[in-house]
Every structure is written in structure tokens, then in C-alpha cells.
Amino acid sequence: MQKIFHSLIVLCLFSVTTLVAQSRMLPADSVVITKHKTTIKGQAINYTAECGTQPVWNDDGKVTASLFYTYYTRDGIADRTARPLVISFNGGPGSASVWMHLAYTGPVILEVDDEGFPVQPYGVKSNPNSILDVADIVYVNPVNTGYSRILDKETKKETFFGVNQDIEYLAEWINTFITRHNRWLSPKYLIGESYGTTRVSGLALALQNNQWMYLNGVILVSPTDLGIDRDGPVKAANRLPYFAAAAWFHKKLAPELQRKDLDDLLAEVEAYTVDEYLPTLAKGGFIEPAERAAMAKKVAAYSGLNEEAVLQNNLDISTSFFWKELLRNEGFTVGRLDSRYTGIDRKVAGDRPDFNSELTSWLHSFTPAINYYLQEVLKFKTEVKYNMFGPVRPWDRSGDQTGENLRQAMAQNPYLNVLVQSGYYDGATNYFDAKYSMWQLDPSGRMKDRLSFKGYRSGHMMYLRAEDLATSNEHLREFIKASTPTKGEPAMYIRP
Questions:
Q1: How far apart are CA 106 and CA 191, in angstroms?
Q2: Which InterPro entries does the UniProt entry name for this protein (predicted)?
Q3: What single-letter DSSP state applies at residue 110?
């Protein structure tokens, strides 16, 4: 392809154009390329943005769907064999790639205040913390998210909508993308957020076993359970550190706890959770009355709730009740995905909030920004609706062994490292659950030096807070650099 200068756009439409359900034309195969400049970490950087759609084929070679992607490459790189590539997915299932694309790792982020709340006028700005200085990035939208759509009316939705179905077709799609863009020799990373962590954990093994593609790293942002069992007392106990973080943020703890630094408080609550709370909950209805009363007092102190509420819930406080109860006397609820956000319900009474206050805030700012950015800045013109959340249900969750898949991938590939990132105020995929899953991922403990955890003073999308945006991207840089081997370093286990 000939050189493309700033503001020149090349549109290549390939062979298949299909009528989608809303009677608008969507190309199964297309590319729009634009040139841009930015400054990252004080360094001026030129880069290329490639927006496009790439087909999904069935076993007979028929196009069944088309996935929309955005691919950023830093200019001036003569040899990309040593240049890392990060493949990015968001979650849901059914969520577009917009969140991490336009607020975390990409070269452009949306206009929000320093805590992540919407501001007007809506828009985007340069991201001085983007990882584009150290890695190229592609943001992928699975079927029915973003502009991605099923194109073949005869193809059943069940082909795409399930834990293992999702992994299978996306592994094939990634293979095609890597081949088309000549990135087989590059160090490769997967990053997923929320349900995207289920996706990338499964993909790590599917890429190795079915595509013969080996990774250097997997990054789990606000991870799900990955098929790792944590029901019963574990599920109940693991919520307490999150409760303590949210209560601390809203200043609902007693003065002696409120005065503690959050990190010190959480270390204390985590120790109590593992050493005392969990073993006691395991006794169920046979907890001695005095022990029950003492535990209710302690749990109330750490959670910011009253002892009566704790006892009425048999020491097992649901997250929905907590979101309603913590600020009930003030007439507010707290957010599910980020409990720094508050909402107002129709009634103060009840056991759960009327809506997710944080999600409505995020949609408020992300939706206009992504629609403007893709159409006006990246010049991808279409009348197909950009699905922030697309119709993907029912979703087949059977056979979720993605945590075990990731463990197997790590065991088979000595190069493969894993980074877990979580916000302390996330009540949907709480940070202590993430730690617990990381602890359980490798029961042997022989790969724990390749597993690391980072926590942040924000929620599910910790990068929305300006301070955490800088810190979390820096952690990604450090992880990528540390897990990219030196030239000639063999992938092997060294026996003592």
C-alpha cells in the first residue's frame, strides 16, 4: 500500500457486502486508514489507526459474521518482530470494546473529570498515558457488539453466544488478523476486562492448542470467577474487604478505622476474612451465639452497617443489600461496578437499588464520544448502530473451565505471565475475589512468580480516575517489558 499522509484516507472494500438485520449495508471486509500524532509520556509519537471489519468464516469457507476492530500501530518501527502487540477485549458478554479503547490504553480518551464523571461538552482528548509508546494495540468487538454483526441468516446465534463458542471463533479470527498484518513474530498479549477476562483466559489455551500461537502475557482487568469455584462461605466472606473499602470511601467507619490508610485497613480486613470470618461462616447454623454476636459486631465495624442488619442476614450480606443499605439514612444508594457513585431510588425502603448509578454515568459520557470519534476522527462512516451492549443472550455458560485453561497455557508456555488489575470499589467483580482466584489458579504454587496483582482506589474501570489511569498504564508498561524476553532467551523450565 502506498504511503498515506496526514488526513488522507484510504477506504478498501473487499468482496462481500451483506444486508444486515436493520436493512443497512455493512461490509464484511473493509479498511479505513488514518494518520495521527500524539504525545505519550512527554514523547511525540506518530501513529496509524486502522478501522475495519474482518470476516468470520464457517468450516465450509462461508462468511457468517463480520467483526469490527480498531488497530493502532506506532509509526517509524522498521522491524515489528520485537514490537509487542496487545489484543484487547471488553466484557459483558455483549459489551463493545469501547471502554478500554476510549478510556484506558488507547491514544485517545474521552472527556471526563479527574474522578471519571461526565462533563459537557462531550468529546475526546489525547491520552498521555497510552501504552502505544511500547506496544501496538487492536480492539476487537465480538459478534453483535460495536458494529460487529451476524451476516448469514442461516447461521444459528448459538454458534457465537457461549463461553466456549466465543473462544472458538475468536481464536480463528485472531489467527486471520495476525496473518493479514504479519504479526506472527511479534510478542503477543491479551487483555480483557470483566467478562473479557473469561474470554482471554480461554483464548490463551485455544490459541496455543488450536492455532499454535503462543503468548507472552495475559492481563485480567476486574476479572470474573474464570470457572473457579468460590461458592458458599467463600463467596460470602470474600465480599467483606470490598465492603470495607466502600464504607471507608463514604466515611461510614468508626474514627479509629476511618483514620487508617486504605491499604492498611484492607490488609487488616483481608487477614480477618481469611483467618476468622471464613472459618466461622463454614459452621453455618451451628455457630455459637456468643461467637455469632462477636462476629456480627466485627463485620458491622468493617462494613459500615449496623449489627442488627448483619445478624438479620445471618452474617452473610449480599452485595445488592449493601448497595442499598450503606447510605440508606442519607437517601442514597451506591454503585455496583464502582461504589464511589451514588444514586437516588423511588423509595428509601427495599433490598436493592433501582438502577446502577455508575453505569448510567458511564453511558452518559462514552456513547457520544465513541460515535463521534469513529465517524469524525477515524472516518469510519456507517449508519449501522454502534452497540454499546448488544443482544447476545441467552449465553451458554456451561463448561466454563477458563481458569484451568489459563493454568494449562501457563504450564505449557514458560514465557506466559499473568497480571491481575482490580479496583477496590468494584462491587460486581470485587478485588478480593480476584486475589482469591489468582491464588487458586495454580494450586501447585510453582508458577506464582508469573502471577501478579495490582489494586487501585477506584472501581471496575479503575482507569476512569485520572490518578489510576496513569498508574495502571504504567503497570502495563512494566508488565510488558518484564515479560518480553531478551533476544535469544529460551522458553524453558530450568531445574535446580
A1: 13
A2: AB_hydrolase_fold (IPR029058), Peptidase_S10 (IPR001563)
A3: E
Q: Give the H or E element holding residue 257.
A: helix 255-258
- CB burial of residue 120 (10 Å; 0-12, 13-18, 19+): exposed
pLDDT digits (tens, 9 = 90+) for 335-393: 999 999 999 999 999 999 999 888 888 888 999 999 999 999 999 999 999 999 999 99
Closest CA relative to residue 237, chosen from 321, 333, 286, 303:
303
Cell matching residue 90: 471488553
Cβ count within 10 A of residue 344: 12
Task: Classify each residue of 121-156 as buried b or exposed e, where b means 16 or more C-beta atoms within 10 Å of its C-beta.
Answer: ebebeebbbbbbbbbbbbbbbbbbbbbbbbbeeebe
Fold classification of 10-228+364-483 is Rossmann fold (3.40.50)
How far is the C-alpha of 338 from the C-alpha of 468, rounded, in Å? 14
Helices first, then strands: H and E counts in the chain: 15, 17
Q: Which pTM value belongs to this model?
A: 0.93
Which of 98, 102, 107 is CA-nearest to residue 128? Answer: 107
Which ranges in the chain are annotated with CATH 3.40.50.1820? 10-228+364-483
